Amino acid sequence: AQSVSQHNHHVILSEAASLELGCNYSYGGTVNLFWYVQYPGQHLQLLLKYFSGDPLVKGIKGFEAEFIKSKFSFNLRKPSVQWSDTAEYFCAVLTGGGNKLTFGTGTQLKVEL
Amino acid sequence: GAVVSQHPSRVICKSGTSVKIECRSLDFQATTMFWYRQFPKQSLMLMATSNEGSKATYEQGVEKDKFLINHASLTLSTLTVTSAHPEDSSFYICSARDPGTGTDTQYFGPGTRLTVL
User: Fold this and answer.
1) Nearest CA in chain B to A49
2) From its phi and psi, is residue A4 left (phi > 0), alpha (psi between -120 and 50) or beta?
3) What would the pLDDT profile of A42-60 be if each residue is shown by its tens digit?
């Protein structure tokens, strides 16, 4: 069965620091990849997604992620974080003909002023 | 963007009662909706896939007789937790796929916090 690993469970950064959150998946077939964000008290929102084409995808709020097929990875990056980026970030992989979305365990990001 | 709503946002019930949670796609028609469960400090786990006009597909280990899913229209899916017990207390989240986007992106509702006393 497919699985998604997010190695960083808690990350604390100062404003303006650079961010990289790791995401690795285990699935041998074609995958679609997502990063979702859950701000405190809010629902999951789509940050960005990769389906095909350019492996470097850009999302909302200055986030980007790079799909490296050989490493089964889809790491999330942002050059300079803001306090408002404090949230929980989930990586997810879509398989099963587009029906099964498997989530990682999430990374809690706290950005300090 | 696609909006998904859930009702209620919070519910507290006594053990043994049944609770119904609604999931609606507000600005698009969703032939497929999904129900997830999220435990504290854990990830979302897919419970079942709800298909309009047909039976839901349940993930392994999810009791279909306990978690009844009905997807009677293209904008509404319901999850009924029957004979709820304290161990059913959790955060239930639905999502819907917007076929109009031409992709398999799921849009999530705000979730329902269920507490069973």
Assistant:
1) B105
2) beta
3) 889 999 999 889 999 999 9
